[in-house]
Fold this sequence. Notes:
Blueprint: H1 5-19, H2 30-51, E1 56-57, E2 60-61, H3 67-82, H4 87-106
Antiparallel strand pairs: 1-2
Amino acid sequence: MKKTPWMLGYWTLLRMSIRMKKKLPIYMPTREFIDGCWRLAFLDDMVCRHELNGVVIKGEPIVFPPKKESIPYRYKLFLEMYGEDTAEVWKKAYSKTWKRAKALRGK
């Protein structure tokens, strides 16, 4: 069976719920949550790359991994971070990232 992003998200949530001995979050539809985490991962990656481009910390420039690696990593991270939060908490985090991305367009 081909692994689609949706199936990857569902299995990540399922494994997380088994590991924590809790049920899957029911605060919002699973498909909407998984799709939203993909969008959030893409937006967050875009914002971070733009804000930290050319920044040097302790004499070392910040280097990002390829998007092919960083976006799936962020996606799994957001699935775990917001898996147990309510829809309001998740939507607030998404809208905050969306506003940061829109502000970058204006620059």
